[in-house]
Amino acid sequence: MKIAVVGTGYVGLVTGTCFAESGVTVTCIDNNKSKITQLNEGSVPIYEPGLEGMIRFNVEKNRLFFTSSLKDGIKGAEVIFIAVGTPPGEDGSADLKHVLDVAREIGSVITSYIVIVTKSTVPVGTSEKIRKAVRKELDERKSKINFDMASNPEFLKEGAAVEDFLKPERIVIGIDSEKAGEIMRRLYNPFVLNNHPILFMDIASAEITKYAANAMLATRISFINEIANLCDILGADVNHVRKGIGSDSRIGSKFLYPGTGYGGSCFPKDVKAIIRTANDHGYELNVVKAVEKANEYQKNIIFNKMAVHFRNNFKNRTIGVWGLSFKPKTDDIRESSSINLIGNLLKAGAKVKAYDPAAMEETKRVLGNKIVYSSDPYEALEAADAMVLMTEWSEFHLPDFRKMASLMKEKAIFDGRNIYDPASIKKMGFKYYGIGRR
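Given the sequence above, the corresponding structure tokens read:
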């Protein structure tokens, strides 16, 4: 079987590579010629555990190819996935420019029946817009070529995307033809041998499922963050509360970890987009709006605690920041709470020294030389007035606290992910600030 994937960003590259791993012949297409050159030379433009080795293996096996020509890339393909970016517009809606540009190009070059699949996260109705754009190009060519549409939203966690794709909890596919359903079932059959289901549904339902899932997860994050903030006020410990409610099977313990707010490329964008979609149809998602508002507050929670500690005087203060990416096992700093905190610290007059195992280069592209980039976590703490833990990378979990104390000017720890034990930290002479911890 042969397929094509348009877009070699996070979703497209993982999708194409994992299908190649199952034995499918895959051509990944991108109009960014420098990125295609980079991939053909064996260099991977994103950080994702396990991906680089898998790409090289499948390229060597002649199952995975990269090209900047859509016309060449779709030759012989039964399925073409559209996996290009849908960034938020100024009004919060998903920008479909790139999706529709690809649709028009597909319509101008296809020569036989194909299933066109939206893999990008898109609002309800996008598949119909793609269908019309493709059909218009075919009509201008006076072509009678048939095609079908399908929606196949991705549910990939950054840092675990390869595992998520190869061993999915569920696969959601929206179709409106039996033929498209048969092709998609054949394509995905190797991934459901563990008895996890393929959920076929109508296209509109598939399109909204992705937004609803991310809005639900974002809701859980904002909920536990607000409970943690209340625990701070009341003198309770959110870790006890989290375990108490998480043991209820109706609630569960996942995504009940308080922190500094959600970030990344999906949750913030998708929450805005589903709010906008509802507004466009005359309906208000009041709960989801509250989730977004709570998250904006939470992104400043650590800065607010630091402001109290330093009595709003950040002049001549040096802050050591551990973690720049929005979560571990990725170099993605989009909507990162750490980047937001650093912006606030710089505005307040503080000097920032930072370390991250993967996201230093990405941060340099955004912040340039506004901060000091350290070669390891301890270098970031030399003469520091405080340490801030913003991303829970595994190497930060068991640091040498005695070494930290010897390096720091003031022994203050702001734990944005609640990974340290407050009592143990205080015994070593540190002042400890967590989120909802006694």
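The CA atoms of residues 119 and 227 lie 35 Å apart. Try to locate this feature in the token string yourself.
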